[in-house]
């Protein structure tokens, strides 16, 4: 299914009678099948979106590139989120209803900048009850202050945050703050909802599908 240039891949169990959790991810790496397989012992629906512009659609406000020669961040996450809420999610749920699958709750997960977008979505709307920000780009300029000022939707009952234990070991001054900021954000969220922070082995690029699956499994196991 394609909506406004966004490709949507939906994975779900062959047989089900009970309402299922719907987990939305933004994934431009084509890894949704692997991620779903790693979680397939849990009955749920995985809706994977691709075709978005990484630096434009997942960034909450404009910011300069973090690497020399890289692209600046355009800060159009609000526009993309509106597209998800008004067009993409309704289309996903309509397709599921045609297959007699009902949704018990909707969660959002993401890796790297998509992890930042997932948590930002929990500030900007009430659509998601569970959030996983895996190796999230929570170093993003001003994001921690924005969260502390605006908090998280009261509909969010669980937030999973993770990083690789080597991610903060970088010469990039901004990105080296990622673990300090992620831990501070987790501490802040613990006063608002259930929040957990997990360290994985390795740098930012190690086992992204496995780490994403771990985050999703945590959300699915949370009661």
Biggest sheet strand line-up: 1-2-4-3-5-6-7-8
Shape: globular
Strand content: 15-25%
Find the structural class using helix and strand composition.
alpha/beta
**What fraction, in percent, of the residue positions are helical?**
25-40%
Total number of strands: 8
Number of helices: 7
CATH class: Alpha Beta
Terminal Cα span: 31 Å
C-alpha Rg (nearest Å): 16 Å
Low-confidence stretches: none
Give the ordered list of helices and strands. Answer: EEEHEHHEHEHEHEH
Task: Name the average pLDDT.
Answer: 94
Question: How many domains make up the 3D coordinates?
Answer: 1
CATH hierarchy: architecture? 3-Layer(aba) Sandwich
Quote the CATH topology.
Rossmann fold
What can be said about the biggest beta sheet?
A: 8 strands, mixed
Explain what this protein looks like in three dimensions.
The protein is an alpha/beta fold and 223 residues long. It has a single domain, classed as Rossmann fold (3-Layer(aba) Sandwich). 35% of the residues lie in helices and 22% in strands. It is built from 7 helices and 8 strands. Strands 1-2-4-3-5-6-7-8 form an 8-stranded mixed beta sheet, with helices on both faces. α1 crosses α7.
């Amino acid at each position: 299914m394609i909506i406004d240039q966004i490709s949507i891949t939906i994975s779900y169990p062959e047989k089900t009678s009970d309402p299922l959790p719907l987990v939305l991810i933004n994934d431009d790496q084509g890894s949704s099948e692997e991620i779903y397989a790693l979680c397939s012992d849990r009955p749920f629906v995985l809706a994977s979106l691709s075709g978005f512009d990484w630096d434009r659609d997942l960034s909450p406000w404009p910011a300069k590139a973090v690497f020399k020669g890289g692209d600046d961040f355009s800060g159009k996450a609000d526009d993309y989120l509106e597209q998800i809420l008004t067009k993409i999610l309704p289309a996903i749920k309509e397709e599921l209803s045609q297959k007699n699958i009902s949704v018990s709750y909707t969660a959002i997960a993401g890796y790297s900048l998509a992890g930042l977008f997932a948590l930002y979505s929990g500030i900007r709307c009430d659509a998601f009850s569970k959030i996983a920000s895996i190796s999230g780009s929570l170093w993003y300029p001003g994001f921690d202050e924005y969260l502390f000022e605006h908090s998280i939707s009261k509909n969010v009952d669980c937030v999973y945050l993770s990083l690789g234990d080597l991610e903060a070991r970088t010469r990039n001054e901004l990105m080296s703050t990622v673990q300090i900021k992620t831990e501070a954000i987790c501490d802040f969220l613990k006063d608002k909802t259930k929040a957990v922070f997990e360290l994985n082995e390795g740098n930012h690029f190690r086992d992204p599908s496995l780490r994403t699956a771990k985050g999703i499994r945590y959300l699915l196991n949370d009661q």
